[in-house]
Specification:
Layout: E1 2-3, E2 6-7, E3 14-15, H1 16-22, E4 30-34, E5 37-39, E6 48-49, E7 54-59
Parallel strand pairs: 1-7
Antiparallel strand pairs: 1-2, 3-6, 4-5, 4-7
Length: about 60
C-alpha cells in the first residue's frame, strides 16, 4: 500500500480507523483520500485497507 507516496506493508487486514490510530494520526486534524476518493470521517471504521490501496493523508495546519 502507498501512503503519501511511501510504500507500507500491511501484515493484517485492518480498517482505516485502526491504521490511522496505529500510525498516530489525529483524526480530528486530517483528511483522507483512498484511491482518489475522499473518505468521510464517519466511515473510517468501515473502510477496509488492502495492499493495492493508495492513501493520501493531509493534515490541517492553523496559522495566520
Amino acid at each position: 500500500m502507498k501512503v503519501n507516496g511511501s510504500e507500507i506493508l500491511l501484515k493484517d487486514s485492518v480498517n482505516l480507523q485502526e491504521f490511522l490510530e496505529k500510525h498516530q494520526y489525529d483524526t480530528t486534524k486530517i483528511a483522507v483520500e483512498k484511491n482518489s476518493e475522499i473518505i468521510p470521517k464517519a466511515n473510517y471504521k468501515e473502510v477496509m485497507l488492502s495492499d493495492t490501496d493508495v492513501l493520501e493523508i493531509v493534515s490541517f495546519v492553523g496559522g495566520g
